[in-house]
Amino acid sequence: MTTTARHLPASSDPGVLVLVGTTKGAFLLRSDRKRKRWDVGGPYFPGHSIYALAYDGRAGRRRIWAAASSMHFGATLHSSDDFGRKWTDPETASVKFPQSTDKALAQVWQLTPGRDSEPDTLYCGVEPAALFVSRDAGDTWELERGLWDHPHRPQWQPGGGGLGLHTISLHPTDPHKLLVAISTGGVYASDDAGTSWRASTRGVRADFLPAKQPEFGQCVHKIARSPADPERLYLQNHWGLYRSDDGGASWTDIANGVPSDFGFPVAAHPRDRDTAWIVPLESDGFRVTPGGKLRVYRTTNGGKMWKPMSKGLPQDGAYETVLRDGLAVDALDPVGVYFGTRRGEVWASSDEGESWKLALGGLPPVVCVKAVGLGGKLAAKPKKAAKKAARADKKAAKSDKKAAKSDKKAKKKNKK
Predict the structure, then answer these.
(1) What would the pLDDT profile of 215-239 be if each residue is shown by its tens digit?
(2) Which of 87, 230, 282, 336 has the CA that lies 20 to 30 A from 405?
């Protein structure tokens, strides 16, 4: 029996689109602004691993990009302008290394649309670690030689998933500034639109190297830039959780109150620079949620404190893994938060993580989740939800403090 993809039904409410990549195909989830019920499309590219997905809504487009990888045909880029009903089917890979490099494309790890001011520009991060750019809406791609020819390259080493460029972060208003992350090369920043690059990992440790804070070579798992403040960045390292307030020039440890500072994904609030989400894992040797409890952690004060968000999530025997691109947020008010697990489940929160519902289960292992609002002014009250979340975290902190005092009094009483 041949699997046939089902398609998303027509909808008058633009709502939210969630792109889900798995090791055996891509799925599309769409809901209205309430985000209570989800329509599902897919599987698209059945049997292919989909590590990179992107939505391009610039210049009037409604284009979905997918990087489909096959052990027989390699990695190819496909796009759809009708929410998956039809996909482009290139005969050869459009992203490919020049013959002079003597390298072949192993995997596409990231697809990032350019700024609104450059509607035909797209960026692509690949393995072996390299950055490609298209300036004709994805028809042709060019290797960024400034990064490829960097003198540090011979010393970069592959991480557990290979030597991949997995994060591309564009400064939203300065067209000259961009930042990438490589496992295991570290963070590299450019101030001249990619002509030259510098290592940008001061303060980030590398526990697996003799020098614990080298100039480069850290195994950075993911970086999220705050849209509200482009200089504010959050970084989840192989070991370590960090924040930068100067565009990545320096990093400060913010692993305060988390069960582990090992993990993969991180996501930033679209309007509040002090709010971010992570999913800690127990260790690099046991890459599952600590204690068998599936919890997303949120900070509303820039990492001074992290609060576990578990309402609706399994808290017994949930030894789950969420990968570097498995966590995403939308831009609605309140912000929607989404993540996918290696067990093949997609969880959704319509209240910034306060509560969770299973949006879709029974999938192959989830490796990529992206979320986007489909048109309209989806965020009418940008500060309301952030203030509400901050009040909730403050209330929880007071409650924890009160409980600690009670425990202390009880211990003193027992001693007497």
Answers:
(1) 999 999 999 999 999 999 999 999 9
(2) 282
Helix (H) and strand (E) counts in the chain: 2, 27
Range from 91-95, 111-115, 187-191 carrying the lowest mean pLDDT: 91-95
Tens-place pLDDT, residues 242-254: 999 999 999 999 9
Q: Which amino acid is at 337?
A: V
Sequence-distant (6+) residues with CB within 8 A of 85 are 7
Question: Could you give all domains of the chain from N- to C-terminal order, each with its CATH number?
Answer: 16-384 (2.130.10.10)
Render pLDDT for 7-34 as a digit per residue (tens, 0 to 9).
999 877 779 999 999 999 999 999 999 9
